[in-house]
């Protein structure tokens, strides 16, 4: 076999660390439900000129352990600043989310507004304000209409309920440019008890890894320690939300919160933690890939597998560069199997690999082997790219410097004229 030849598919040679289909036997119900002890509501307080719902609440009926991960953008929203100070927590009770205004780049007044939102919810629930988390999404740099929000919070609390419809209403109220609500839940057996993990998110653009604008609330009725909660959330997020990209633009507001209230009565031992961790990852993966399927103006859902590196970090860098390349994205938009753009994007990822050991498949068709082009039917592949929404790029390094057994799966979308139109008219 030549130095760069790869026998079989990547899946046959490498185990991807997000391959839940292989590693975790779970299913995502068509109608997600809340875990025990949680309630939700969605209501309208008047932030959006459209009159659509814009205030969401997720509430635990008892103290919950909470962990969070947030945008690494230095220009971050006031709610991010407030939430960072409140995790980890063992007394979390609720998350309030407004859409239509991100309360970002609003200075000290924005922080006061975020704190006032949490205080108002706490007053309604009869708990401490530090038990409440807050998120905002929408236009940057505009002060929140606080009278509208404060007037709307009591009504939102009154609407709280535990049904599928309540969860749907809350998820819908989080949306900005999303075209559909994003929800997921799964049940797993832990210590003889059924435990549920449920999650919601919003996002369709301004999506980039390292807290890819997007917000997510994950809830479970399992009993987790603060350390278990934080570790499980970070494991799942690193392999899902941090492995998606729409436009490479990191948001100011990205937040993922995990609340575990223990209402199911199952205490999670260290041996059970893997099961809960994988359930959290599965829910996060469903939500993250829904963001890509809903990417603004997108025609294609692109899965990128990079394998054969000596570290996950190296595989991640390579996958990210391919995903963020405007030239790769536009080639797929036009159905152009221009593999040179994919290989060259991998080449500037800062990984010291030898192209003589690199192979590339597009939708299962080998186009590049051992640093050499492989004859293929370009017209047939082009037609396939144009007719199918899902695109699969597989790049493997089979030897040489930086080679190994690590892999990463990454998801992105193509770049269309509709994306440009939507984002050129966002505030006007």
Description:
The chain is an alpha+beta fold and 428 residues long. The chain has 2 domains: 10-16 and 298-424, ArgJ beta chain, C-terminal domain (Ubiquitin-like (UB roll), Roll); 31-293, L-amino peptidase D-ALA esterase/amidase, CATH 3.60.70.12. It has helices at 10-13, 20-23, 78-84, 107-125, 146-158, 164-173, 226-238, 270-293, 312-324, 326-333, 339-347, 378-387, 417-424; strands spanning 38-43, 55-70, 89-101, 132-139, 182-190, 193-202, 215-220, 244-245, 255-260, 301-309, 358-362, 365-369, 372-373, 390-397, 403-413. Helix 4 (107-125) runs parallel beside helix 5, helix 7 runs parallel beside helix 8 and helix 9 packs across helix 11 (339-347). The model is unreliable at 11-16 and 18-25 (pLDDT under 50).
Short structural description:
The protein has 428 residues and is an alpha+beta fold. It has helices at residues 10-13, 20-23, 78-84, 107-125, 146-158, 164-173, 226-238, 270-293, 312-324, 326-333, 339-347, 378-387, 417-424, and strands at residues 38-43, 55-70, 89-101, 132-139, 182-190, 193-202, 215-220, 244-245, 255-260, 301-309, 358-362, 365-369, 372-373, 390-397, 403-413.
What layout of secondary structure does this protein have?
Elements lengths: L9 H4 L6 H4 L14 E6 L11 E16 L7 H7 L4 E13 L5 H19 L6 E8 L6 H13 L5 H10 L8 E9 L2 E10 L12 E6 L5 H13 L5 E2 L9 E6 L9 H24 L7 E9 L2 H13 L1 H8 L5 H9 L10 E5 L2 E5 L2 E2 L4 H10 L2 E8 L5 E11 L3 H8 L4
Parallel strand pairs: 3-4, 7-9, 8-15, 10-14
Antiparallel strand pairs: 1-2, 2-3, 2-9, 5-6, 6-7, 10-15, 11-12, 11-14, 12-13
């Amino acid at each position: 076999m030549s130095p760069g030849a790869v026998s079989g598919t990547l899946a046959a040679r490498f185990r991807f660390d997000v391959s839940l289909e292989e590693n975790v036997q779970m299913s995502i119900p068509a109608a997600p439900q809340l875990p025990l002890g949680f309630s939700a509501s969605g209501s309208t307080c008047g932030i959006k000129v459209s009159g659509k719902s814009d205030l969401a609440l997720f509430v635990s009926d008892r103290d919950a352990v909470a962990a969070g991960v947030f945008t690494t953008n230095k220009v971050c929203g006031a709610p991010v600043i407030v939430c960072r100070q409140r995790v980890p927590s063992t007394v979390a009770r609720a998350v309030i989310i407004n859409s239509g205004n991100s309360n970002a780049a609003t200075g000290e007044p924005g922080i006061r507004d975020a704190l006032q939102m949490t205080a108002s919810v706490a007053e309604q629930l009869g708990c401490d304000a530090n038990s409440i988390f807050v998120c905002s999404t929408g236009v940057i740099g505009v002060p929140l209409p606080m009278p509208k929000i404060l007037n709307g919070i009591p009504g939102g609390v009154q609407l709280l309920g535990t049904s599928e419809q309540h969860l749907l209403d809350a998820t819908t109220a989080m949306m900005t440019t999303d075209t559909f609500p994003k929800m997921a839940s799964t049940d797993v057996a832990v210590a003889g008890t059924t435990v549920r993990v449920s999650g919601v998110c919003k996002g369709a653009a301004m999506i980039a890894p390292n807290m890819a604008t997007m917000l997510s609330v994950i809830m479970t009725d399992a009993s987790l320690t603060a350390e278990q909660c934080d570790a499980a959330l970070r494991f799942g997020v690193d392999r899902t939300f941090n492995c998606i990209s729409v436009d490479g633009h990191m948001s100011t507001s990205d937040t993922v919160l995990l609340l575990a209230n223990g209402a199911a009565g199952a205490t999670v031992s260290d041996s059970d933690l893997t099961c809960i961790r994988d359930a959290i990852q599965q829910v996060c993966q469903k939500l993250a890939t829904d963001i890509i399927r809903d990417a603004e103006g997108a025609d294609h859902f692109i899965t990128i597998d990079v394998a054969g590196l000596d570290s996950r970090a190296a595989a991640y860098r390579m996958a990210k560069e391919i995903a963020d390349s405007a030239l790769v994205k536009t080639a797929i938009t036009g159905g152009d199997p221009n593999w040179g753009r994919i290989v060259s994007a991998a080449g500037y990822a800062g990984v010291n690999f030898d192209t003589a050991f690199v192979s590339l498949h597009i939708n299962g068709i080998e186009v590049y082997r051992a640093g050499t082009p492989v004859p293929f039917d370009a017209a047939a592949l082009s037609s396939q790219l144009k007719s199918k929404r899902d695109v699969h790029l597989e790049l493997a390094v089979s030897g040489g410097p930086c080679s190994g057994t690590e892999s990463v799966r990454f998801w992105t979308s193509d770049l269309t004229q509709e994306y440009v139109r939507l984002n050129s008219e966002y505030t006007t």
